[in-house]
Amino acid sequence: MSREQQDALSRTALGVFRLNGQFLAVSEKLAEPAGLTAAWWQVLGAVLPEPLPVAGIARVMGITRQSVQRIADLLVREGLAAYEPNPAHRRAKLLTPTEAGRAAVRRIDPGHAELAALLMRELGGQEAFDETVRVLERLSTAMDTVNASYQEPPSHG
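The line above is the sequence of MarR family transcriptional regulator; the predicted structure tokens follow.
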């Protein structure tokens, strides 16, 4: 690997880490008035289209199953989600939002829409926004491929 490639990798990783922090900070602000945290919102958002097992939510979100399990249990305890039987797997129940959970996410929609419009304008329009999304999705897909085949670098010692 050339020094230029290493620098590009470092800049990419640092940029993504910074973006993650920025998205988490703004997500906390958006979620708070709805009585949610950013993490609760993420997990609820993952199951809005269809109920999923905890392991499936973890895969979609790219975090550990244990982290999702903890949040899912809190959401169920707060009445924002419920576990239901999973016909495909007896022990891995499906998490589904309750009406209260869906209502909480709907309360975030106006702020979410405003943020999307602000970000779109800052990026220079919808076309630039769409291209940003495509690049990030391509990066994520490439990282999935790299992670699946990655070998530890040789040790020099």
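Note on the example: The domain at 29-138 is CATH 1.10.10.10 (Arc Repressor Mutant, subunit A). The chain has a mean pLDDT of 93.
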